[in-house]
Amino acid sequence: MFFGERLKQRREEKGLTQEELASFLGDNLSRQSVSKWERDESYPQVEKLLKLSVKLDISLDELFFDELNYYRKGTEKRKIDDKYPGFVSGLKTLARILHQIN
Asked: Is the CATH number of domain 3-101 3.90.79.10?
């Protein structure tokens, strides 16, 4: 289960609508943005990922479990790289920020 599906599942477990989650994240974020994340069409900025983690009471490791396992395996063919180059760049940035925090 990749990020979008896991996000949707956790949001529903917490009894939140897309509108409520978008409102919590602020900055005039729309329900459509949350919908795009849940369909894996785009990904939130790092700041919003951190807020999602808090609101949904889920670690970023859990939220990105399958993506992280994919990279840990070191597979030769990187389908995620090809399909979501912006996501890969953002995930690398997130990893650097989390490393600096620790």
From this structure: no
